[in-house]
């Protein structure tokens, strides 16, 4: 007998929930995560806020994830599964999720991560009390030994999307996860999504959302998301030339969105936008030997990595550091080893 909670789609359509709308739709893209998927789903089904749906989008996972999803959907009717006909990557899986979600609010959760039992209840209470379009909770990075490192996000509640975007450009995490989003932010709107793209997916969607919708933002101090540091994750392997190009493509896509949408009068935002790209390129210059690839990636990279371009948007110490990376190859190894030592001490690797 066909499981009524499993849907096979050939195209993306918009879901209508009628009067049967849960408070929260948890959107879970699934691909190659059979080792961690059960932990994720258990944390979602164990939420103190019970009026939820868990919408799992199986992106043609080649492992045993489909069987795990089937078992959970048979056990609990709140678990719905969408089987995609072909693998299209995380960004497209999320599009499928928010086009089919029936909830009053959406919550993004990656299938190798998990959340505290009261996360959705606390986020929902704050969202209803403030009527905020986005309600942001605290995020922890969890490594293989179980050590947790806080990524605080309380300072992103600045009234509207511009303040949130400014803080993201300043270094605040751009993760979609651990937050509630009103479904109205997604109704009738499909955000940019690249097929089979594995870098800065959250940044692309969130940047466009903040620019287009100008949402109100609230935060809570409580932890609402545990980001698992997966050492096998594609984003944590030694970066290849192709991966570097994909990452630069994604980051400059976001840079272009901001440059085109923000008026010239908002010089602080435009300067922060340029500064973010300098910091990002400096970070990659530490990791890889392809200096000319980064510097000559496009007109903006060439401009921003020039001395005058850097000094127009970043402090002198970062400009000097980046200049050394560009012109003194041995310096790169020293800088990268120092960074990795610090990250290890912080529990991030």
Number of helices: 13
According to DSSP, the number of beta strands is 9
Q: Which regions contain 5 or more consecutive residues with pLDDT less than 50?
A: 10-14
> What share of the residues lie within helices?
40-55%
Average pLDDT reading: 89
The largest sheet is: 9 strands, mixed
Order of helices and strands: EEHEHEHEHEEHEHEHHHHHHH
Tell me the span between the first and last alpha carbons. 46 Å
Structural class call reads alpha/beta
Give the overall shape: globular
* Spatial extent as radius of gyration: 21 Å
Structural write-up:
- The protein has 349 residues and is an alpha/beta fold.
- The chain is 44% helix and 16% strand.
- The chain contains 13 helices and nine strands.
- The chain has helices at 37-45, 65-75, 90-100, 119-130, 161-169, 201-213, 241-261, 267-287, 291-295, 299-304, 307-311, 316-327, 329-346, and strands spanning 6-8, 24-30, 52-58, 79-83, 105-108, 134-142, 148-151, 179-182, 217-228.
- Strands 1, 2, 3, 4, 5, 6, 7, 8 and 9 form a nine-stranded mixed β-sheet that branches.
- Helix 2 links the parallel strand 3 (52-58) and strand 4.
- The protein is globular, with a radius of gyration of 21 Å.
- The termini are far apart.
Would you summarize the structure shown here?
The chain is built from 13 helices and 9 strands. The longest helix is centred in the C-terminal third of the chain and has 21 residues.
Sum up the structure in keywords.
single chain, alpha/beta, nine-stranded mixed beta sheet
List the helices and strands and how they pair.
Blueprint: E1 6-8, E2 24-30, H1 37-45, E3 52-58, H2 65-75, E4 79-83, H3 90-100, E5 105-108, H4 119-130, E6 134-142, E7 148-151, H5 161-169, E8 179-182, H6 201-213, E9 217-228, H7 241-261, H8 267-287, H9 291-295, H10 299-304, H11 307-311, H12 316-327, H13 329-346
Helix pairs in contact: 5-6, 6-7, 7-8, 8-12, 12-13
